[in-house]
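Recall that a protein's primary structure is simply its ordered list of amino acids. Everything else, from secondary elements to tertiary packing, is in principle encoded there. The following example makes that idea concrete.
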Amino acid sequence: MEEKLITFDTAKLAKEKGFNEPCKWYMKDGIDLSESNETNDFLFEGYLSAPSQSLLHKWLREKHYLTVRVHRDYDGWAYMIEEFKSGNKMIKGGSAEMPDYEVEFEKGLQEALKLIS
């Protein structure tokens, strides 16, 4: 089983929100380029760290106390974002009616990143 890398748009948003962890891959313009194990700080202009969905989720959980849950909905998959710093509470939920778990998880990761100020 292979881990799913985040999309280029999610990588841009993650960098804007402070994601700067070493990643196995980096990308430019949405193309997975090479192995690196570098952080965003050490990549050339225009290149972004490309973490797996699970690594970005771990960063959201450990640094910002946000977790994304995906569950089966009537028409596909739905995500929900919970903040657990002051007790578990749902702060955002949504469904894009996606038939694919990973696509809906990515949507939830993007929405969680947007909550970071």
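The beta strands are 23-28, 31-38, 48-49, 66-73, 76-83, 89-98. Helices lie at 8-16, 53-64, 101-114.
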